[in-house]
Amino acid sequence: MTTARPDPQAADPPLAGVVVVELDAGYISYVGKILTDFGARVIKVEPPGGDEQRQATPVYRGQDGNEHSIPFAYYNAGKESVTLDLADPGQAASLDRLIGAADVLLDGLGAGVAQSLGLTRERLGALRPGLIHASVSPFGQTGPWRGHRTSDMIALTLGGVTAQSGYDSVNGRPSQPISPTGGQSRHIVGLLAGIAVVAALADRPATGVLSLDLSMHDAVAVSTESYVSMWEFGRIEGFRHTAQHANGEFTPPAWQFRCADGGYVCALTLYLTDRRFRALIDLFDTHGFEHGLDDDRYATVSQRQQVMHEIVDTIAAFCRQHPAQFVFDQAQQRQLPWSKVRSPDEVAADAHLHARGFYQPLELFPGEQVQWPGLPWQGLPSALLDAGPARRTRAPQPGEDTERLTGGPAPAADDHQRVHE
Amino acid sequence: MTFSPLAGTKVLDFSWNVAGPTATKVLAALGANVVKVEWPARADPGRALGFSPFQEGVFDSSGFFSSVNVGKRSFTTDPTTGAGHALVDKLLAWSDVIVESYSPRVMSGWGWTFQRMTEINPGIIYLSVSGFGHTGPESSFVTYGPTAQAASGVTAASGEPGLPPAGYGYSYLDVITGYQAALAVVAARLKQLRGGPAQRLDVSQVEVGAAMIGPVLLDCNLNGTALTGEQFPPGNRAQWPRGTVDGYRYETGAPYNLYPTNDPGHDCYCAISVMSEQEWHRLRSVMGDPEWAADPKYETQDARIRNQNELDMHVGEWTRRHGKYELMAMLRAAGVRAGALQTGRDRLENDEALRDHDVFQWLTHDLLGDHRYESVPMLADGEPLALRPCWPILGRDTETILRDELGLSPDEIEELHRNGAIWPAGLARPSYEGTQS
To answer: Residue A363 belongs to what H/E stretch?
Structure first.
């Protein structure tokens, strides 16, 4: 299923034929990526000089000698680019024509900005009846925090992710909160926006505009698993723990252990059933590790709960004697839900992910094939991977498509045609 | 008009714990008709996850379970028996989408391979959610959220340089995999509505995690970056000095960190991000133009990034004299990006923006009373998406679904009762009196 290409009748990507215009000030390009991956045509409208995200680091020095932003390439692969100065009425008219031929307008300009450019609800509905106008902004288009700016770390911190992530309090050192990396605030809101837009395409309005208004803050605030329930139902304010769930205990048994080679394993003891406990003892016995866990005090789940610190200390001692990969392999052979804490470079080289076809060769920079960290689902045709050689898979140069898509004044119907070609 | 684009979409939900049920919660919030299928002897372990006093043998007392499963109905049958198997066949024929999150061999072991599903329902969408996916050398590996996080690189990518990985203080990949799975389903639904053939979607939590750090993996691949150095993981900062490891937030600026405040407790921090010269000048004036800030070593953004250790120390000395909400208000008023470190309690009790958008919605649960539930937050034409006050109280909706969705007669339903096909013979059935589906 994974590496075989689907049969030709099924080969149409889900959003084949859908045209999207993306206006972004740094919040919505991940939604454009989702729609591109699903086969939509995404036209990114950038200010003269290009989107600021083109400066985002880290960079890659390509064979063409230019520095390319890696995140910009990742989030904008396969899109088209038109540069327009929206303060110039002639160029703003080009945007109108692009919107007039689009199904979706992605608006990541920030609260109220599209409106101030004249893109009001009424105007959009006149330009393109049935348009889906999806906006992603830090705090939404309405509400008391509307218009405030944010950053990735601020969004994760206000939304609750940071308070529950970080380090245990060790040796009197205060428990330090850590805001996780990778630009997750944009992913969280982008996923909810993507779901809303794609679902809306299944039941789109015939007239007027469907406006979808997503706030990064709201999205992050509902995406913290049990942390809200913990207060709502239990009146518990959690403590942070290293690489482990925040909870009401100050020093719960740990899950993450340092191994002989300096690597770490996540040795989850959270669901230590009788079967898993026997597997654990087998792991220790097989490798001649003295453990004392066959004592009656460890006989049942509830007894083990009482002495979990002892069990965990034993696991930690075993880990200190063996490399992390060895512990991972041996544990999984016995169906223990453990893993090595892999560094990103190990994940980039991982054999299982390669065998599943997660990484695919893609021209992500001009003339250069790279191992592209692919799609988080398998089984849907992908516009980028299944496209013919003519399909652009890299991110566009600023304004690369301006002339083709807006060149010269033309009747609206004609432009509609051109955009849909 | 209510935004309910999945109204009429029928979802058969065999998923467990958090990741799969998060996907079907989102689908339900968008209008899908979600039927959660369980057998009481092997009910969703999520029913025992906590925060309201959980009682052994009581299936519907968990607050967290009720928050992940709001908007769904419950159907009980045992797929391992002949009668139960036949009922699931009927449900498969009825449904548009089937979602499951078992280990890879469970559904096929019960006889429902994808091939078999397509024989019953030629247009079906079959989505599986698992740790490592249903193919590949590690597909049999056992995982929970924290395991998948460790295996995917997201744990290692978060923490302070020189300290152990800090990862996430929750199963981030359960939540995000739920969203990715919901996204795959709505996309597949578009093809289904066009009359497309059956679709098999295989979502792996490890791949979801890897995709969520895509640019980090590309940096490793393209630049040969080995992410084990003294500046990785990159802490709370946006940037480290150029030429060293990046902060992987795809933002630039300094000061950019969490700073201590004078609030009590261990959540006494305020996040500040200065991402332009203008913002730096604004911060200086909010701080009262201290002498240290005029030092040329803080004059440009590059210089501030180079001298972040000292810079953070100075800013921290100032923030320590204020509360986290006080700092946020002062800084925002001056046009500096800032945010208080908010806990679950803070978000529920202190956050006027979340309240204004009705993000945590008050609903009355028949057994748990009035509580606030996390919505799927968006405004559609200005209106928040309202959660349906409906929960999969174990077994409560079985007869209704047999009658209304599958068209069984009262006699047929009575016979299923007698045969123990829809509730275990020896187990007392809860009274649903006074509860409504």
So the answer is: strand A359-365
